[in-house]
Design a protein that fits this description.
Pfam families: HisKA. Helix content is about 45%, strand content about 25%. By secondary structure, the protein is of the alpha+beta class.
Amino acid sequence: MCLPHYRISDKAICYCVALEEPATPGFFFIGLFFARSWGTGSSFADQISEVGVMAFANHQNEAHRLQRLQAYGILDTATESHFDAITKTAAQILRTPIALLNFIDEAREWCKSAWGMKRKHARRHESICAEALLKGDFLVIPNAGEDAHFSNHPQVTGKRGVVFYVGVVLKTSDGVALGTLCAIDHLPRDVSVEEVDALRTLAANVVGHLECRILSRKLADAEQRLEAAATSRDEFLAMLAHELRAPLAPINTAVELLDTAGASDAQHAWARTVLRRHIRYMSQIVDNLLSTSLVSTGAINLTLNVTQVQAMLDQALELVQTDISRQGHELTMEVDATLYVDADAIQCPLIVANLLRNAATYTPPGGHINVTASADVDIVNYDVRLRDNYDGRSTGVIVAVNWL
């Protein structure tokens, strides 16, 4: 284990550990630790590990960094030729036998691609690449065996340990560190500025590839939403055509009757009643079309809140009670009072009211309208059904997706 430290004396080392706290992100804690066995192996590191001192300083906003890393969906995935080509190129440019593409999560160094060795992972507090993240940009170790900070590092002292290391931090376009692209040798050597710049270019290629994946997924999601919107539009237009066509027949009949010579006053009165009713109905359809257009363009914002189904239906009934009473209809409701939905408290009652008004309009006077609300067996969707006795068919069904 290796911590950022300063040697104070032969028996005292000052270690700096960054603590992540909600109120003070990135706050640095400086602790003074004493070790009798300093320089005699790994026992000192073991002692520190036992009391929970981590071998790395958490980045400022570490939780955000980890969230961003997870969002790329790169962890625990198979090897990919694109990334393997990058590690191969890195090894060739740096003239090293090994190049690695590592990502650092909360507990480990996870290897996506390895050139010159098999992929293997390491605990984060035993990772040189995790140390590179602390540097913020890149880390160069010409000879780890002679480096006071890394000479006892597990990845240096192990079998075929690291001697030369150069790693460039993988940073997103907004500066979030994800991991490193590094080159390793078992012999000491120097690295030029040009070689580090070349490694930076390859690292930028890695991040660019990952960000393109994110954009591709967002584009695919947008295309799906667009297709769904187009389908909804087509369904709405088909429904609108049906609804507008339905009153045309009685309107035409009423007009012909008014033009018929010798029609009685009662027939004229009936024709005028039919015209008024269906003109009012078509006006409501136009209003509904406007409301739908406003919602789809964002002029009306739908606000979802937990709403009792019974209360929503009662509100809808209040809006059309006059229409139902005028026709002398009998209305019954079968609603479980324990049903709740995520719904817009303004728009949803209007939708139900429109269905009720439609039922009242096309049900013969003195008819029966029945409203039921029930939950599916999987408690995912609720059905609100309105049925009248006009030809014994439903005038409308609402299926509310994502209702609680």
